[in-house]
Design goal:
Chain lengths: ~325, ~290
C-alpha cells in the first residue's frame, strides 16, 4: 500500500506541474502581450509607451517568461498568490473569503448525489424493467440533460414569485449564521447534486445488475437468505466500487458546473469570482483560481484511487 | 438503399427512445438550417412598441427587453448552438482520435508522453478549461469552437488509443507490416478504418456535452458575443432584469434541454448498436483508468 501511495503521489505532483505549466502557457503566451489581454487592443493602443513599460514592470510581467513561471510556483509555495489588477484584494483573501461557500456547495452536492442516486439505483436494480425502474431511468436521463444553471434560474425565479426570495448579496459563513448560510448554499447544492445523482443512479443500477448475476449471489440466494439481505449485504458492497470511481470523475462536473450554477443563484462564491476575473481579463486571478480548481480535481481523484485500492486490494498489484 | 432502411427500422424497433431522439435531433437540425424561412421575425430587430410582452398571438413566445421576438431568437439560436457544438466535437474528436491512433500504434515514448498530456488536459473541469482558453484567444465564434474542441481531445485520444492498441495486434496488421508498409501507411489504411465506428459513437455522445458547455459559456458572458442570438446569451440577457419575465428564462433553456436530451438518447442507442466495446462497463473502465 505504501509503495502504491507513493507512486500515485508522484504522478499527481507531475500532473499538477504540467497543469500549472499549461495554465501559464495558455494565459501568458497565447495572447501575446499580457497588457493587451488586460486592456484590450484599443485600451492598449491608447496608452503611452512609458506607462506600458512601468505597468509591466510593476506587475512583474516584463521578466523573461521562465523567470515568471518559476516565481509563480515559488509564490504559490509560500502562499503568496498575487493581487487582482482591478480591485487590489489579494487572491489569497478572495479564496479564504469566498472559498468556504463554494466548498460547502461542492460537498453538499456530493452528499445529495449519493443520498438520491444510490437508493434510486438500488430500487431500480431490485426490479429491473418494472414501472418504478422505468420512471427512475427516465428521470435520470432527464436530469443528466437539464443544464444545472437553467434549473437554478427557474428555481430562483419561482421563489422570487412565490416566496419573495432575494438573491444573497453578502457572504454568510456557516460559523456565523448557520441557518442563513444554509439558505444560500442549499439551492446550488441540490441542483448540482441531482444531476450527479442521476449518473450515480444509472451507474449503481448497472453495476448491481452485473453483480447480481454472479455465482456468489446465487449461492447467497440458495442458502435461503432474504432478497433484501442478498442485495444489501452481498451484492451492494461489490457493486459500489465503480460507483465510487465515477464519483471522482463527477467531481469535475460539480466543479465546472458550480461556476455556472453559482451565477444562476447569485451566490457570491469562488465560481463567481472566476467568471468576473475572466470577463475583466484579470489574468493573475484567473491563473490562480483555475489552478486551484485543477488541484482540487486532481487531489480528489487521487483520494478516490486510494480509497479504491484500499477497498479492493487486487488493484495494488496491477 | 432498402438494406439501409431495413437496418434503420431494426434500430428503431430495438431502441425506440434513441430513434425518437434521432428524429427530434433531425428536426432541430432542420430548424437550424431553415431558420431564415421559419423565423417569423428578424431575431436582431428591436421593436420598442412591443417590449417585454408575454406570449400572445403576435409573438408566440413573447418578446424581450428591447422587443425582439423570442421565438425567432430561439430558432436562430439553434443555428449558433448546433454549429458551435458540431464543429467543436468534430474538431476535438478528430484531433483526439488521430492522436489516439498514433499513440496506440506507435506505443513507446511517444505514447507515454502523450498519455501524460491527455491526463493534464483531463485535470481541468471542462467548463473552466474552455473559459480560460476562450479568454486567452479572444471571444468570438472561432475561439469558442476551439476552446470546446480542446476539452474533447482527451476523450477521443483515450478511447481510440485503446482500440488501436488491440487492432495493432491483429494478424492482418502484422501482415501489412511484414510486407514492408510504413507505419504511416499501416495506420492510415489498416488501423484507422477500424476506428470509424467508435469515432462516430464518441462524436454523438459528446454532442450534448458540447451544447451544454457552449450554453454555459454564453450564460456566463464569455461565449459567442452578443448580439448573436444563442440560447446561453438569451438566458444571460434574461437575468439582467430585476424580475426576469418567465418566458425569457424558460424557452431558451427548454430548447437546450430538449436538444441535449435528443442527442444523448441518440448517442446511447448508437453506442449500444455500433460498438459494444463502448458499453457503460467499458467506459467506466476507461474513466477509472487503472482497473485491471
Amino acid at each position: 500500500m505504501k509503495k502504491y501511495l507513493a507512486r500515485r503521489a508522484v504522478y499527481a505532483v507531475v500532473t499538477l506541474l504540467g497543469v500549472s505549466l499549461s495554465i501559464f502557457v495558455i494565459l501568458r503566451i497565447l495572447p501575446g502581450d499580457p497588457l493587451v489581454a488586460i486592456l484590450g487592443v484599443e485600451g492598449h493602443a491608447r496608452m503611452m509607451p512609458a506607462d506600458r513599460v512601468r505597468i509591466m514592470a510593476d506587475l512583474g510581467l516584463s521578466d523573461p517568461l521562465p523567470v515568471q513561471y518559476v516565481r509563480w510556483l515559488r509564490d504559490i509555495a509560500v502562499g503568496r498568490l498575487g493581487k487582482s489588477f482591478f480591485r487590489g484584494d489579494t487572491v489569497a483573501d478572495l479564496i479564504s473569503h469566498r472559498g468556504p461557500i463554494s466548498a460547502e456547495i461542492g460537498v453538499l452536492a456530493l452528499v445529495v448525489s449519493w443520498l438520491v442516486g444510490l437508493p434510486v439505483g438500488i430500487l431500480s436494480a431490485f426490479k429491473p424493467n418494472s414501472l418504478p425502474d422505468g420512471v427512475a431511468r427516465m428521470l435520470s436521463i432527464l436530469f443528466i440533460a437539464i443544464p444545472g444553471f437553467w434549473l437554478g434560474m427557474l428555481i430562483v425565479l419561482a421563489s422570487l414569485f412565490w416566496f419573495g426570495y432575494k438573491t444573497p448579496i453578502i457572504i454568510v459563513h456557516a460559523w456565523e449564521a448557520p441557518w442563513q448560510n444554509l439558505q444560500i448554499v442549499i439551492g446550488p447544492a441540490v441542483v448540482l447534486g441531482l444531476a450527479q445523482g442521476a449518473y450515480i443512479a444509472r451507474m449503481s443500477r448497472s453495476c448491481l445488475l452485473e453483480v447480481i448475476s454472479e455465482d456468489f449471489v446465487r449461492t447467497a440466494r440458495a442458502k435461503g437468505l432474504r432478497e433484501g439481505v442478498v442485495v444489501m449485504r452481498h451484492a451492494l458492497p461489490n457493486a459500489l466500487l465503480p460507483v465510487i470511481t465515477i464519483s471522482g470523475v463527477l467531481l469535475g462536473f460539480v466543479l465546472g458546473g458550480s461556476v455556472a450554477v453559482e451565477q444562476a443563484f447569485g451566490v457570491p462564491g469562488l465560481g463567481r469570482a472566476l467568471v468576473i476575473a475572466v470577463i475583466e481579463r484579470d489574468i493573475i486571478v484567473v491563473q490562480n483560481l483555475v489552478l486551484l480548481y485543477a488541484v482540487i480535481f486532481v487531489v480528489v481523484n487521487v483520494l478516490v484511487d486510494l480509497s479504491y485500492a484500499w477497498l479492493d486490494p487486487r488493484i495494488r498489484y496491477s | 438503399m432498402r438494406d439501409i432502411l431495413r437496418e434503420l427500422a431494426r434500430f428503431a424497433r430495438r431502441n425506440t427512445l434513441s430513434a425518437a431522439g434521432g428524429l427530434v435531433g433531425m428536426a432541430i437540425i432542420f430548424v437550424a438550417l431553415a431558420a431564415p424561412l421559419l423565423a417569423p421575425r428578424d431575431p436582431l430587430k428591436a421593436d420598442f412598441r412591443r417590449m417585454n410582452k408575454p406570449p400572445d398571438a403576435q409573438s408566440l413566445l413573447g418578446t424581450d427587453q428591447v422587443g425582439r421576438d423570442t421565438l425567432s431568437r430561439v430558432i436562430y439560436g439553434a443555428r449558433t448552438s448546433l454549429f458551435v457544438a458540431f464543429s467543436a466535437v468534430v474538431l476535438g474528436t478528430t484531433v483526439g482520435s488521430l492522436w489516439g491512433v498514433a499513440c496506440g500504434y506507435l506505443r513507446g515514448r511517444f505514447d507515454l508522453y502523450s498519455q501524460r498530456v491527455m491526463e493534464i488536459l483531463q485535470s481541468f473541469p471542462d467548463l473552466i478549461l474552455a473559459m480560460a482558453i476562450s479568454m486567452a484567444i479572444g471571444t468570438g465564434l472561432q475561439a469558442v469552437i476551439f476552446a470546446i474542441a480542446v476539452t474533447r481531445i482527451p476523450f477521443g485520444g483515450r478511447v481510440i488509443r485503446s482500440v488501436a492498441l488491440s487492432v495493432r495486434e491483429m494478424p492482418y496488421v502484422e501482415a501489412g507490416r511484414a510486407s514492408g508498409a510504413s507505419a504511416l501507411r499501416v495506420m492510415t489504411f489498416h488501423v484507422l478504418p477500424q476506428c470509424v465506428a467508435p469515432y462516430l459513437v464518441l462524436a454523438t455522445t459528446h454532442l450534448g456535452a458540447a451544447i451544454v458547455i457552449e450554453a454555459a459559456l454564453g450564460f456566463l458572458g464569455v461565449g459567442v458575443p452578443p448580439p448573436t442570438p444563442t440560447w446561453g446569451n438569451m438566458l444571460a440577457d434574461s437575468i439582467t432584469a430585476l424580475v426576469p419575465p418567465w418566458w425569457l428564462a424558460f424557452f431558451p433553456g427548454l430548447a437546450i434541454t430538449v436538444t441535449v436530451l435528443a442527442f444523448n438518447l441518440l448517442g446511447d442507442g448508437i453506442r449500444d448498436t455500433l460498438d459494444p466495446r463502448l458499453s457503460p462497463a467499458f467506459l467506466r473502465m476507461m474513466a477509472g483508468g487503472r482497473r485491471a
